[in-house]
Description:
With about 500 residues, this protein is of the alpha/beta class. It contains 18 helices and 18 strands. The protein has four domains: about 1-85, Barwin-like endoglucanases; about 95-150, Transferase, Pyrimidine Nucleoside Phosphorylase, Chain C (Transferase, Pyrimidine Nucleoside Phosphorylase, Chain A, domain 3, Up-down Bundle), CATH 1.20.970.10; about 165-400, Nucleoside phosphorylase/phosphoribosyltransferase catalytic domain (Pyrimidine Nucleoside Phosphorylase, Chain A, domain 2), CATH 3.40.1030; about 415-494, Pyrimidine nucleoside phosphorylase-like, C-terminal domain (Aldehyde Oxidoreductase, domain 3, Alpha-Beta Complex). Helix 6 (about 140-150) packs across helix 12 (about 295-310), helix 9 (about 220-230) packs antiparallel against helix 16 and helix 17 packs antiparallel against helix 18 (about 475-485).
Amino acid sequence: MLRIRRLPIDTYPENTAFILRHGNGYSAEHFRALRKIRVTGEGCEILATLALVDDGQIIGDGEIGLGEQAFRRLGLPEGTTVEIAQARQPSSLEFVRRKIDGDSLGDAEIAAVIRDIANHLYSPMEIAAFLVACSGFMSTQETLALTRAMVEVGNHLSWESPLVVDKHCIGGIPGNRTSMIVVPIVAAHGLICPKTSSRAITSPCGTADVMEVLAQVDLTVAQMKSIVAKENAVLAWGGRVNLSPADDVLISVERPLRLDKFEQMVASIISKKVAAGSTHLVIDIPVGPTAKVRTQSDAVRLRKLFEYVARHMGLETKIVFTDGSQPVGRGVGPVLEARDVMAVLRNEPDAPEDLRDHAVALAGHVLDFDPALEGGRGYARALELLASGQALAAMERLIDAQGRNPATPTLGKLQHEVKASATGTVKSIDCERIARIARHAGAPIDQGAGIDLMHKTGAQVRKGDTLYRIYANSEAGLGFACECACESTGYEIE
């Protein structure tokens, strides 16, 4: 019997428990056996990885320390008495072993795996084994089963409307922050658009990171519903509302391994949209030499998989192929991308044209779902709402409703200009390289870090011209970014 102590240690995504190596009646042999333990008390239970402590000032005799994740998931107050025991291996791991051997799994077997992953019964190594096995081969039926299982283990949102729209990009293109323009256009038209977005994991920023520059995004379900009732839309962080929680756990392991298979991508996106209560969805698939989807044939294969799974999940979809040959807009990083978004919404003359055009086209596809609009009028309506200032007004109301950020967002105080090494025409820009440099600079954790692009493909440059400017708030971040840019600027000039 041990008393809980909360330790301010972030062990995401794992549950981690800390106990003294010596004391509490356990020998070293017990500790070696208890690599993973079950912690139970007052009807609550978690499984946690065990870490041994040799400093009695961190954990005392008769105490068990819980990292932030474990403490929150167990849900008991400090000082509560709990018991620990050796954790049994989840029985669903047998299905993972079969998948590793090349077998196809049934719906119930995949559901069991996902349920145990969502309940944090798997270690990162076991999750990685499942992901790698699925990456080797996954049937269309397994993809559908995975999607259903991911929906079932999380919260479900519902809205008092037969038409709930959304738009999603599969990612991989720096600066492609179209959702923050599409949502206010759609809201101004009057359609319901509860947009939940993720934070970046390995990219320079996600929609939630950019919106957080302007407003609060960590909203409860009750707050989201109240805002949607008033403004028709919301731009919130999806992690707070526990939609398809197994997906968040899978992504935390998937991204460091750079696994981004189509089947897992489809299950991830569709499960979250269904759980969020969407009925109609536009999916943006950028295609380009350094995008996630690099050939037209791959794009068609992905489109067909999206359509199959979405149809069986009762979600109407429109798949759009877009230009993924270079970054969209000029800024890469939270503050810079927020600047570009607001410039488009304000109809500023120097706003990035590619971001404006891309967003309006996607908004038009979303508005085409409205049966009150004549066929094909969505694009013209989107242009009208943007040009008239109605989209900007909707965005300002949304920012106020979510809680406007009182601080003025600022760029990193340190900067470095990357110059052209030759005179000629910008032939191509490597999206992966630009994203990596921005990430090294500190984005998205450092909101002011990132890259401001001065030239896009087709531009004429002279040797010594600035191709882009790197911003950072730390010497280390700027140094890492500059080192990455020295290896390759990401620009091909000929």
